[in-house]
Amino acid sequence: MNSAKRQEIFLRLQAANPHPTTELEYHSAFELLVAVILSAQATDVSVNAATRQLFPIANTPQGLLDLGEDKLRDYIQRIGLYKTKARHIIQTCRILLEKHGEAVPQTREALETLPGVGRKTANVVLNTAFGQPTIAVDTHIFRVSNRTGLAPGKTMLEVEKKLLKVVPDQFKHDAHHWLILHGRYICQARKPRCGMCRIVDLCDYSNKEI
Ligand code: SF4
């Protein structure tokens, strides 16, 4: 795919949704961090249902430590891997309290030392809470990047590096959200909705479902 096509893809995604953001609900960097940890292999809808109950009770590292791991589990028990996630969140709260004055760190290195926080989670927090032009590649972005020819790659990391190289600077901050939403609602895994796709004429996929 050439750079003119890439530019046009993002122009159209931007025109349709000028201020995209995550579908996770949050009011602080810490709430976002917890929500993103919870969202691994879970839907944003299920995470929001849990955090709507949890955050009014506890939404700081100290608050969650006071709540305790057992009670935290009760709030998140409908989310996959909830026991592991509860343990990671409590461990993360302890580190934030002891090493970061309760603040969420703003560097990838510091974020990735937190239990339950990998490269993707760090990218989401850096982008969405702190405005950095990172691109967190999830299953949707991986699929869309490969199908369309926007940034083909065999691994998440390969696709991320390619996207960082080829996405025009003016779109870098929001690219992550546009591509996730496009994958979630239009370029779906089993049956892409090519007939409704606003970039159908720019996409290189050879098996379009029209
Ligand atoms: S045309 Fe089809 S395959 Fe290409 S991006 Fe749109 S939905 Fe996905």
UniProtKB/TrEMBL annotation:
GO molecular function terms noted in the UniProt entry: 4 iron, 4 sulfur cluster binding; class I DNA-(apurinic or apyrimidinic site) endonuclease activity; DNA binding; DNA N-glycosylase activity; metal ion binding
Cofactor(s) listed: [4Fe-4S] cluster
HhH-GPD domain residues: 38-185
Keyword Iron applies: yes
The keyword Protein transport appears for this protein: no
HAMAP family to which the protein is assigned, alphabetical: Nth (MF_00942)
Protein name as catalogued: Endonuclease III
Native species: Candidatus Nitrotoga fabula
Lineage: Bacteria, Pseudomonadati, Pseudomonadota, Betaproteobacteria, Nitrosomonadales
Gene: nth
